[in-house]
Amino acid sequence: MKLELLYQNLIGIPSESKGIEYVDLGKALPRAKKAFDKFLQQIDAKVLGYDSLPDQNTAEILRYVNSVAEDMDTMVVLGIGGSALGSRAVYNALKTTKSLVNKIYVCDNIDPTLLYEIMEKIELKRTIFNVITKSGGTAETLSQYLIVHKILKEAYKSDYRKHILITTEANNGFLRRVAEWENLPTYSVPANVGGRFSVLSDVGLVPLAFTGIDINRLLDGAKSMRERCRTTELMQNPAMMLALSHVLLLEKGFNISVMMPYSNSLADMADWYRQLWGESLGKRVDDDGNIVRVGQTPAKSIGTTDQHSQVQLYAEGPLDKIITFIRVESFKYDYTIPNLYPDELATNFLAEKTLSYLLKTEQLATEIALTDAGCPNCTITIPELDEFYIGEFIYLYETATVLAGYLQNIDPLNQPGVEAGKIATYALMGHPHYTEHQAKVESYLSKRKVEYKI
User: Fold this and answer.
1) Is 306 in contact with 243 (CB distance < 8 Å)?
2) What phi-psi label fits residue 132: left (phi over 0), alpha (psi between -120 and 50 degrees) or beta?
3) Are 390 and 221 contacting, i.e. CB atoms less than 8 angstroms apart?
4) pTM for this predicted structure
5) Phi and psi for 286 in degrees, rounded to 5?
6) 220-240 pLDDT, tens per residue?
7) 453 falls in which pLDDT band (50, 70, 90)?
8) pLDDT at 451
């Protein structure tokens, strides 16, 4: 069994707003081949570091996890964006099916209420705080670390170090220096792996292994999908077909990409996708320096919940959306609907069917309805909630994202728009290395007129 992509409804469906036809795919194949060749070249050049992650040796991670197993049962991840979303998404996808005992809490915002709520839930003496930032200088993560460090040192004095783990760049950054000063255990983020591509690195594997998730099986799934995405038969390449169809539809005006998992367990995988797709593909300039302002806005819906809130918009609103259904074929836990009122038409058609059967039927029904409404859609079927298939899913979307960037002649690895916000934050907070930006910030503040406040 393997993860499957059904993409027929992305092509040639009746639409008031013209979509794409199979002939469009054929015409785009030279463009696709050029993008795929660049993809292979960038792998050879070690630019796409995420591609080699499935081959890593996990022995050291598993050794560390075993060493703390007796004393610790909770890990709090202090991180933001790619340092947090991936591990949370995989953990929540598998925690119930795998009956995981150890817990992860992810503090991915500096909202003080979030940190307070997490601190109230945990037993401090049985908790490790995993501080994750590739640069070692992310303001949000450092703020959390400084607060937690003080709490731990006050509680345990000389014994506080066993509650802290640092995950950062191997050789650079403030947190790497802190780890050396404090003699703290560390893991590394590869220099050629960006945060949003880092879930299969130490960033994600350490917390996931801590909970009991089989990280080797996760990597095996990614390795299996990597082989499928290497085929030069591009119409048989799932990552290329996802990327090419989405880019061609974007150029026809379909500028919103909705991921709609029919499983609450996969809700955070849609959040992981939103960062990956949005941050990688929303770009002002292309690789030749031309202003292009491209980007497909990623959105999230949950089936069946959002059939009762968002599908009305998808079916009858602007034809500017692509829907990706995520369907789970087999659930570990299920319920049979009892036949309590055999003479009542309102319920007897449900009798003796399972909830999972109803859930899958509703996904198919929504697929039919949106296809009839002219809304392009595709379906990814995951055989079951298992590490192997989640690993396949992760690698599939990482590669589809990179290919979508190369198809548009943009860099899917950088994020200059994010960096601009970071710089403004540092300037506002008085960071001494950003004094040259303070004049610009002060100029903006001087124009922030009070007469527009009501």
Assistant:
1) no
2) beta
3) yes
4) 0.94
5) -95, -175
6) 999 999 999 999 999 999 999
7) low
8) 66
Q: Rounded CA gap, 132 and 11, in Å?
A: 41
Reply yes or no on whether the pLDDT at 336 is more than 70: yes
Q: What angle (nearest 5°) sits at the alpha carbon of residue 394, between those of residues 375 and 280?
A: 70
Amino acid at site 227: E
In whole angstroms, give the CA distance from residue 242 to residue 228.
13
Looking at domain 4-43+219-407, what is its CATH homologous superfamily? Glucose-6-phosphate isomerase like protein; domain 1 (3.40.50.10490)
Report CA 370 to chain centroid distance, whole Å: 25
| CATH hierarchy code of domain 50-216 | 3.40.50.10490
| CA distance linking residue 33 with residue 385, whole number of Å | 33
Domain edges within the chain: 4-43+219-407, 50-216, 416-447
Burial degree of 450 (CB within 10 A; 0-12, 13-18, 19+): exposed
Quick one: three-class SS letters along 349-417?
CCCCCEHHHHHHHHHHHHHHHHHHCCCCEEEEEEEECCHHHHHHHHHHHHHHHHHHHHHCCCCCCCCHH
Give catalytic residue positions.
Answer: 279, 308, 422
Q: In whole angstroms, what is the distance from residue 275 CA to residue 132 CA?
A: 17
Contact indicator for 440, 277 with CB cutoff of 8 Å = no
